[in-house]
What does this fold into?
Amino acid sequence: MTSQPRIKSLALVALLLITSMVTNAQTTTDTIKKETPKKWYESMSLRGYVQARYNRLLETNPDLRCEQCDRSWGDNGGFFLRRVRIIWFGQLSKQVYFYIQPDFASSVSSTSLHFTQLRDAYFDIGVDPKNEFRFRIGQSKIPFGFENLQSSQNRLPLDRADALNSALSNERDLGVIFYYAPERIRKLYSSLVAEGLKGSGDYGIFGIGVYNGQTANKPELNNNQHIVTRVTYPIAIGSQLIEPGAQAYTGRFVIPKDQISTGTKVASDYQYLDERAAATFVLYPKPFGIMAEYNIGKGPEFNTATDSIETRNLKGGYVMINYKTNIGKHVVFPFARWQTYDGGKKHELDARSYRVEETEIGVEWQPSKNFEFVAMYTISSRRFEDFKIQDNFQKGQLLRLQAQLNF
It folds into this structure.
């Protein structure tokens, strides 16, 4: 009888010892987990989006086109994959960040679609522990224009306005850009995108840099780099948030020989002054929003009177109004944009000359974070001329549709 209490006592002691060992082991494991840094591949993420379009509904003029906007405009245009993007990014260490973005729906010509082409490939090097001062090295967006910096995944109109987008084909180039923004402003820029307020992303409140000047995926053709600078600052006024800004760039652009028609007169060295200055005003949609930008400058442009590419003045901009509202769990953005542009497009044949007046009225519907649908009615007047096609004035209307998948 006396052995039973002893057995119970021994069992209790054993149980306490096992419990203590398990607790200590768990504590040690937790300590190791906290002290072991992440592997570099554990800091990487993937995201992306796909845009499918159709532009031919209610079309009144099949000869109305916009080469830099959307190659499926006009005659023989059908269903079209405008963008297929997968973005690979990550904070490799406290002061080193990388971002790589190919597009699997690039159109290298009017007869070949869906080629893979690099859009972004850069890394950010933070100068201080908070990364308030950083250098961006590689191919990235050049900080000229709010709408140019705004991702096509977030933008309301289907294409960027001609006036500022004509400055940079695909908005990108190779170079080194220095950015500065206080930590609280960087967090604000991230929240504006995360909350669906159509922000531009984090490009600092001040940026300055040098880049090749021939635009993305094009080789440099002279020994001079372009210089760009941008200043902007978000200001809270009650519950509203505005962001005024200014930007400018200057350089020498070389017209590639394969972009010149036989018979077109050009400068002996094919180089032309390429410089612009622009002003920006943004009122974020809380719920009513406004975006307005205007730029002036000089650049190469075809002159029909002399059959030559000359350095000529350019000007143009846009104003857009929009409204953010929720219908149940659905997010709806009605919007309207008016734009004008008078100048050349250096990326197109013979630095094609343009005169544009255009009004767009549309709505974006987001039934979930993974799917968006845009319907946009376009009323357009465009004169676009080069050596081969002169006295080319096209006017028309069309309904444009886009379905977008986000992941």
Notes: Residues 3-35 form the longest helix (33 residues). The chain has four helices and 18 strands. The CA atoms of residues 5 and 62 lie 98 Å apart.
